[in-house]
Amino acid sequence: MSEHKQQPDTSHQPDAGRRDFLAKAAGLTSAAVAAGVVLHTAAVAAPRTTPVTDIKRWGMLVDTAKCADGCSACVEACEHENGLDLQEAPEGINPLKWDNQRSTWIRKVKLRDNLTGRITNLPLMCQHCEQPPCVDVCPTGASFKRADGIVMVDRHTCIGCRYCMMACPYKARSFIHERVAHKLTRAPRGKGCVESCNLCVHRLDNGEDTTACAEACREAGHAAIIFGDLNAPNGPLRDALREVNSRQIREDLELNTGVRYAGI
Amino acid sequence: MRRIVYREWRIESSRYWSMLAILAGVIAIGGLAALYMEHHGHWVTGMTNSVVWGTPHIFAVFLIISASGALNVASIGTVFDKSFYKPLGRLSGLLAAALLVGGLLVLVLDLGRPDRLAVAMTTYNFSSIFAWNIFLYTGFVAIVIAYLWTMADRKGNPYKKPVGTFAFLWRLALTTGTGSIFGFLVGREAYDTAVLAPMFVVMSFAYGLAIYILVLMYSFEQDDRPIGPLMLKRLKDLLGLFVAGVLYFTLIYHLTRLYGAQTQNIEHFLLLTGGIYTLAFWLCWIIVGSLLPLGIIYHPEHSKNPKAIALASALVIFGGLAAMYVIIIGSQAYPQEMFPGKTVIEFGTPGDIGGAVAPYWPSLPELLLGIGGVAVALLITTVGIRVLQFLPESLADRAVDPHVAAAEARGR
Question: Which residues of B touch A172 (CB under 8 A)?
Answer without folding.
Answer: none
